[in-house]
């Protein structure tokens, strides 16, 4: 008899984590990714101790740690005066209190390490899922290139415009939050010329906008900013468009000289719409289940969106290992029961953009261990 197979749609940070953890739990997994290949796009990402503990299971914690910046603190500062609003201890404190490091890293470098944790040949690139059909005994997958496949269960890790979400819940565009993010990488050499001092991880705030800034490498030779700025409705077809120093100077007029120096030193600046969705009425049906942005997309202001996708993948693997693939419906209920409250809480805080603006205790996020946490019973069907 053929081994039961799990198909994951999307090899983003969530799908890649789910695949690697399911393989380690002994399942046969195939990942279908629409992109023909992955490249190192210009963006950084925070990874908290809650995720580093999952990377420990995957055997990539040390590799991630070795190429990341390890900030001692998350600083929050007033955008205009530069006054400190909070100093959240990370560094050794995070290691001791939360059980793993807090790092900032280039997103492409992180993704590469996650992909490297998969069994060779796991990802099928250039496979855009067009349709799925669950006939009760299995799921048929139909791809845009005319090919098809069949799996026992399907995990929708296909991001905010998830095709699996659409099949489960019908077509619905995500909400435009009315905000955009500007992103740019900056060479540290260009910063040195300004004579100013740049902190490893700092968020500059004012009433309705902010700029988050941090290093993306262990050598601290690459710095990165990502903003949150109110913006008229997003009318572009593209997922991002080029921005400019002029646009940013206008958006951050009156901000501190350090912020002005960052704008002046930035390389290519891009602009991204911040989209989200209201909590979904269901996370799974039959043989299909959702995770990450396909399930609970959020504004990125807490730097935990990918973390929630990776935690989802880890919890799904844990639940399937607990029940076995033949009882996937119990696994999916257990998974949702153990993820919905946490993901929804993070989604709400992230959308409100209040995280670490003042001196608060982040232990509920960073101290969490997806494999150590006692499992809550799944809700009856
Ligand atoms: C500006 C910004 C900054 C952020 N900063 C952080 C941060 O610091 N920390 C953090 O934790 N999170 C951050 N996030 C959030 C994070 O990027 C997302 O939450 C995360 O990428 C979600 O991962 P995912 O795997 O669920 O989806 P995605 O990363 O969107 O991956 C989905 C994958 O599915 C593929 N796909 C889509 N449709 C199909 C299809 N039909 N067939 C086949 N493949 C398909 C896509 O090509 C993609 O590879 C940020 C987000 C933004 C916008």
TrEMBL record:
Q: Which GO terms describe its molecular function?
A: monooxygenase activity
Q: Which Pfam family, any one of them, does this sequence belong to?
A: FAD_binding_3
Origin, by domain of life?
Bacteria
Keyword entries, A-Z: Monooxygenase, Oxidoreductase
Q: Which InterPro entries match?
A: FAD-bd (IPR002938), FAD-dep_Monooxygenase_BioMet (IPR050493), FAD/NAD-bd_sf (IPR036188)
Using the record's annotation, list all stretches that form the FAD-binding domain: 6-346
Q: Does the keyword Transmembrane helix apply?
A: no
The name on file for this protein is FAD-dependent monooxygenase
Highest classification ranks of the organism: Bacteria, Pseudomonadati, Pseudomonadota, Alphaproteobacteria, Hyphomicrobiales
């Amino acid at each position: 008899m053929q081994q039961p197979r799990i198909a994951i749609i999307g090899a983003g940070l969530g799908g890649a984590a789910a695949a690697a953890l399911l393989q380690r739990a002994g399942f046969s997994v195939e990942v279908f990714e629409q992109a023909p290949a992955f490249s190192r796009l210009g963006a950084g990402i925070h990874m908290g101790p809650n995720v580093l503990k999952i990377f420990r299971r995957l055997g990539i914690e040390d590799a991630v740690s070795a190429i990341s910046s390890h900030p001692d603190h998350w600083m929050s500062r007033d955008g205009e005066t530069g006054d400190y609003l909070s100093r959240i201890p990370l560094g050794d404190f995070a290691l001791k209190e939360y059980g793993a490091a807090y790092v900032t890293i280039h997103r492409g470098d992180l993704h590469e390490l996650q992909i490297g944790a998969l069994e060779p040949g796991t990802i099928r690139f250039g496979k855009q899922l067009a349709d799925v059909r669950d006939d009760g005994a299995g799921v048929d997958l139909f791809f845009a290139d005319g090919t098809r496949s069949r799996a026992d269960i399907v995990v929708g890790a296909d991001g905010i415009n998830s095709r699996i979400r659409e099949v489960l819940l019908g077509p619905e565009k995500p909400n435009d939050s009315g905000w955009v993010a500007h992103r740019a990488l900056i060479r540290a050499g260009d910063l040195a010329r300004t004579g100013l001092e740049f902190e490893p991880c700092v968020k500059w705030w004012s009433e309705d906008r902010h700029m988050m800034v941090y290093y993306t490498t262990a050598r601290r030779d690459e710095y990165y900013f990502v903003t949150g700025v109110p913006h008229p409705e997003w009318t572009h077809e593209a997922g991002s468009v080029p921005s400019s120093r002029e646009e940013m100077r206008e958006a951050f007029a009156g901000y501190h000289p350090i912020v002005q120096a960052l704008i002046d030193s930035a390389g290519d600046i891009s602009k991204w719409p911040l989209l989200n969705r209201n909590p979904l009425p269901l996370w799974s049906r039959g043989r299909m289940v959702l995770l990450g942005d396909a399930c609970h997309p959020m504004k990125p202001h807490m730097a935990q969106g990918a973390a929630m996708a990776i935690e989802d993948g880890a919890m799904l693997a844990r639940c399937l290992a607990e029940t076995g693939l033949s009882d996937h419906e119990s696994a999916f209920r257990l998974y949702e029961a153990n993820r919905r409250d946490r993901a929804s809480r993070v989604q709400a805080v992230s959308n409100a953009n209040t995280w670490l603006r003042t001196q608060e205790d982040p232990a509920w996020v960073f101290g969490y261990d997806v494999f150590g946490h006692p499992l809550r019973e799944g809700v009856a069907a």
